[in-house]
Amino acid sequence: MILISTPLIIAIIVAVVLVGAMIALYFVGNNMQKKQMEQREQIDAASQPATLFIIDKKIMPMKDAKLPKAVMDQAPKRYQKAKLPVVKAKVGPQIMTLICDEAIFDDVPQHGEVKVMLSGIYITSVKTLHKKTKQLQQQEAENGKKRKLTLREKILRKQADYQKQLDYEMEAKKSKEEIKKQKAEEKKKRDREKKITI
After folding, report:
1. Could you give the CA distance from residue 50 to residue 108 in angstroms, rounded to a whole number?
2. Rounded Cα–Cα distance for residues 198 and 195 (Å)
3. What are phi and psi of 49, to 5 degrees?
4. I need a labelling partner for 128 at 20 to 30 A (CA). Which of 48, 73, 109, 155 fits?
């Protein structure tokens, strides 16, 4: 009988637990990514173009954002204290409080008119800025000193980069699937032609 020392047994158990945890995290991450992609597709399908005049933008707790009561009732309690990017904007004659996608929060100007894609009260993307708004942003960037980014801003920038990369990969995957479909259709067509000639 081979005797194994106690530290070696503990090391093997820890290694097995770590491997199990890594495998579990991989599958959980995959499921979360699929859910996020499905939610993103639903949001994109429901989004409509709108022109907003941005009054103010802040990152604040959900409970202090003065969002509609229906939104607050649907949100889980743990998220009501979490901070999220909020934009106060004039939509037509109404002044509304909107939630902004964290990845594009920096692209939304502090003041000025902007064209966005809006899904309910959620700003999904900033399409185009009016010339005056672009000029104001450029002047602010030239006049203002370059400040050091906070940890949150760095994380949001990384998140935006990852989101762009994910969108690019999704488009590449769609194009590959379309190429496969085309090849399959061409093959079917050739098979039909062979049957007709025989």
Report:
1. 14
2. 5
3. -70, 145
4. 155
Quick check: 90 and 52 in contact, CB under 8 A? Answer: yes
| Strand residues in 16-93 grouped as ranges (E) | 48-61, 83-91
Q: What is the mean pLDDT of each run of 10 residues along the chain (198 residues)?
A: 76 93 91 82 80 85 79 77 84 84 79 82 76 61 62 75 77 79 85 70
H-helix or E-strand containing 114? Answer: strand 112-119
Distance CA 84, CA 123 (A): 12
Q: SS3 of 54, please?
A: strand
Question: Scanning the structure block, which residue is given the tokens 């990845």?
Answer: 103
pTM for this one? Answer: 0.55
Read off the tokens for 80: 């009501």
Instruction: Name the phi and psi angles at 75, rounded to 5.
Output: -75, 135
